[in-house]
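chain below, 295 aa
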Amino acid sequence: MLAVYKKELRAYFTSMIGWVFIAFMLVLVGLYFMVYNLMNGYTNFSYVFQGIQMFFVLLLVPVLTMRIVAEENRQKTDQLLYTSPVSISKIILGKYFALVTLFGISMLVVCLYPLILSGLVKEVATGTEHVDFAIAYGSAFGFFLLGSAYIAIGLFISSLTESQVIAAVASGVIMIFTYLMSSLASLLPSDHTFVFWFLAVLAAVVAFGINMWIHNGWVSALLGIIAEVALTVTFIFRTEAFDGLLGNTLDSISIIERYNNFMLGIFDVSALIYYVSVCFLFVFITIQRIKKQRW
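prediction:
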């Protein structure tokens, strides 16, 4: 894994990819830092991360992750790579940690901004104005976790195609959906009948997806039937439990919503576990998909 990690990380800095990503990241942060903190005089640095979220999710992460596996598939070098003595798990982990390290380097540079802001505040202001470092670095740590989770999602999407363009577009669409998940949830009907039918259709779609994954119609059909029966029985005996269930569920699994406590300077252990779980899940299913494709 270490050899793959070093190779990937070196490739980012011997080409333009790593430098361009860091440059765009710092340009975005610098623009919002200038507007919020310098021009408008806010001492809360978390506003900067809140401002760049959409650009980061919609643009930077898809562009960063689009080639990581898709390029191997397009050039057919994946066949050589996956038949090497190094296990697929170590290869994918090496690639993922190289991406996270690149993102981490840009975040380390960003962490200098609160110190700069603090020095400026001391020079031009008196009284109670100060930079809250708990909020500044808490939001930075949370944004690093947020970015790591999105990188894991982008890694998985990149493994599904040979085209970098398709990988970037698909990542952008899926990630913007997760970004707007809470807003979309508020637009959906919350009555129990709609929620029941929505979940019933979702169970059928999941069963179909399982069939596409394992190519076993009997198993996927059985799982789908069990899910539909359990859903129907629950609806009959606990109808009131379906009221507002969809919106509450989307809020609870929203990647963006979990970041809110970090912006307040609160170290949210549940959010930390959530982000680590998302990273593990998407790296794991990426590994499993490539193993399945290999055989």
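The mean pLDDT is 83. The radius of gyration is 22 Å.
thats it, cya
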